[in-house]
Design brief:
Strand content: 15-25%
Structural class: alpha/beta
């Protein structure tokens, strides 16, 4: 056994009614319970990540102010400057904003770090935008800590809107700041990627051009003889009340307000309301066919599960927010693949609204006509999963930026059909180069770990490592040794740049902020961050690591096994249940199953150096990556395995395939 296997204790009694209610295999129900899901609302939000689960964008602090500022510039035919980060989260943010601006005929100028430029805004970039007569500067996936540069932009007469998702400092920049993580933001979902915040901004901007913007909406639903009334503005709940029959005449509204009734057949509306100039029924909306399906699904859910009237009406309100105009729904789904790719690539927790964004984007990926998205669809080979995006598409599109050629990925996302193949060939060459460099360095490090392992963490300070692959090296070290890893190298401008990664159960950022003053630039997330530091400060940095990154509680190290099953129970029904838990990723790890006393029917080595192994067990293909030599000693005996289950396509035939995560001889 290579690692500690932590096996969940099944909750069979509680799982049985859950399986019947949600039409999922008992094993999947047991896993959901062990992962902490209990009530209907929580489970449905997880299992059915549809658009009506998304809250109004106007619940995010300062987003309305950002919308009004942008509208003011647009109405005056001013120019918008857009600056994004250079990773996939930033570039997908830029792509969906560009898509909106170009379709709307709005004048803009865009930029992002390239050719080895440092992370974040610089005064040189601000000067460039000023020379282009930009009236407003919009930052995407960055800006929340760029105080000096934002102040400088303001001094030149530019309005600044920060659209970010990184942890802010104690103070905020002196501008409009759209960041769910700011402490005074009441938006309940804090874990949006940068592209998720940009997606919300576009939704808010589109919604602002509707006649319903900034006006009250009364949503009325009749149930058991009583009227339930939800009052909202811009999709944000203002009040909820219940009225007895005959009292609805007293509803306090004006002719500027909108009244929408859910079930007109079941209510006898007071004449005063039915004659209102802004009265509508849900049936009177010209819904997109997909929205019609969602509305029916939502109504069926309400009848089957324990929704409160308030929950049901808020979901309807969310759906109508997307569907007051069919154009809004169509555009928001059209750009959703960008939002999904950026969200997956940024390794944010795949829960809440992030699941909705990814689910919507992966569904749209299958039919999108945007040239770059169509190319990505071809590269997926029908395997439209978060894992495939994270492991294949993300690294591919991030590769040019690691070598200072960010513009290739940016051009790929905005390219025409005739450009895409040429740009893709260049991106692929950088990805091949990246793979070769990483393999070589990882091999050298793994062969001799002396000096790197500091007990509680790993540190690599090697000036020969290309700055663009520091994060990948740190991630591979973290995965293999299950402890925080820091990798430092030197950039072209002579500044030491570093990346840090940590296991999911360790908030590395919490440790690093204690000595963040030593960095020239610093930012990121709990499990992943980057920094730059002067060479003469590296020694002090290493000493600070020794002082602060100590006593890390890593008792949960190892593999968390979701269920023990017989190989014979691996079937299409179980696979269908597994797929209901997609998308997998941070905060929703891929399911790991355990089977004991396993024997293989046949096996085959493959790979450049025969480092991989394909085992056939009970007519199912099991792949063992990079560990074939270690498996040789027990291939002739029974063994225990832990593995993941997924669907693969071969010549258009769908097949069940497993990947072995770890193994040990059966004793």
């Amino acid at each position: 056994m290579k690692s500690n296997w932590i096996i969940n204790v099944p909750q069979k009694e509680q799982a049985e009614p859950l399986s019947a209610k949600y039409d999922i295999p008992p094993t999947i129900s047991e896993i959901l319970l062990s992962r902490g899901f209990q009530d209907d609302s929580e489970l449905l939000s997880f299992l059915v990540p549809e658009i009506y689960r998304m809250k109004s964008p106007f619940e995010i602090k300062d987003l309305k102010e950002a919308v009004l500022c942008l509208r003011d510039v647009i109405s005056q035919k001013g120019k918008i400057a857009v600056f994004s980060d250079s990773d996939l989260d930033g570039l997908t943010s830029l792509s969906l904003i560009r898509n909106f601006l170009e379709k709307s005929g709005i004048s803009y100028v865009a930029d992002y770090p390239k050719n080895g430029e440092s992370y974040g805004l610089t005064t040189a970039i601000v000067d460039y935008f000023h020379s282009k007569d930009a009236a407003v500067l919009l930052t995407l996936d960055c800006g929340i800590r760029d105080f000096k540069e934002i102040e400088y932009a303001g001094s030149l007469g530019m309005h600044v809107i920060v659209c970010d998702h990184h942890e802010p400092d104690v103070m905020l920049p002196d501008c409009i700041c759209v960041d769910p993580k700011r402490p005074d933001c009441g938006f309940e979902f804090k874990d949006l990627a940068g592209v998720g915040v940009a997606y919300k901004l576009v939704h808010g901007l589109l919604f602002s051009y509707l006649p319903v913007f900034n006006r009250n909406v009364f949503l009325i639903h009749e149930s058991s003889g009583n009227y339930h009334v939800l009052k909202t503005s811009n999709g944000v709940t203002l009040s909820y009340s219940e009225w007895a029959t005959g009292e609805l005449e007293n509803l306090n509204y004006t002719d500027d307000d909108f009244i929408i009734v859910l079930n007109t057949d079941a209510v006898s509306l007071p004449e005063k309301i039915s004659e209102s100039i802004n009265f509508r029924t849900v049936d009177s909306f010209i819904f997109n066919p997909e929205t019609e399906k969602l509305l029916k699904k939502l109504t069926l859910e309400f009848r089957k599960f324990s929704y409160s009237e308030l929950q049901y009406m808020e979901y309807i309100s969310n759906l109508i927010t997307f569907s007051f105009s069919e154009k809004i729904y169509n555009f928001m789904t059209e750009i959703s693949p960008f939002a999904a790719i950026g969200t997956i690539a940024d390794v944010v927790p795949l829960k809440g609204e992030n699941r909705v964004i990814i689910n919507t984007g992966l569904c749209r990926l299958k039919s999108s006509e945007i040239p770059s998205v169509a190319k990505i669809r071809d590269l997926c080979y029908r395997n439209f999963t978060s894992k495939n995006i994270a492991w294949t598409i993300g690294p591919l599109l991030n590769a040019p930026g690691r070598f200072g050629r960010t513009e290739l990925t940016a051009d790929f996302f905005s390219g025409t059909s005739s450009d895409i193949s040429r740009i893709y060939d260049q991106i692929k060459s950088f990805n091949d180069k990246r793979k070769s460099m990483v393999d070589e360095i990882i091999s050298l490090i793994f062969n001799d770990m002396s000096g790197y392992d500091q007990g509680d963490y790993l540190i690599i300070y090697n000036l020969s490592i290309h700055e663009g692959i520091c994060g990948i090296i740190a991630g591979k070290l973290c995965d293999k040794f299950n402890k925080p890893a820091f990798v430092l190298s030197i950039s072209r401008d002579g500044i030491i740049k570093g990346s840090a990664r940590s296991p999911q159960n360790i908030n590395l950022l919490e440790y690093a902020v204690k000595f963040s003053h030593i960095f020239d630039r610093f930012g990121g997330h709990n499990q992943a961050f980057g920094f730059s530091i002067k060479e003469n400060n590296v020694k002090e940095f290493i000493n600070l690591l020794k002082q602060h990154v100590t006593g890390i509680n890593n008792e949960e190290a190892g593999y968390h096994v979701d269920a023990v099953i017989e190989i014979g129970n691996l079937n299409a029904e179980l696979l269908k249940g597994v797929e209901k838990l997609e998308p997998f990723g941070n905060a929703n790890p891929e399911l790991i199953f355990c089977s004991e006393f396993v024997e293989f029917d046949s096996f085959q080595y493959f790979g450049k150096n025969n480092e991989h192994l394909k085992l056939i067990i009970n007519n199912i293909e099991f792949l063992l990556w990079s560990m074939a030599p270690e498996a040789e000693s027990f291939l002739q005996n029974k063994f225990h395995i832990i593995y993941t289950v997924s669907r693969t396509y071969f010549k258009s035939i769908r097949e069940l395939r497993c990947e072995i995560v770890d193994f040990c001889p059966a004793v």
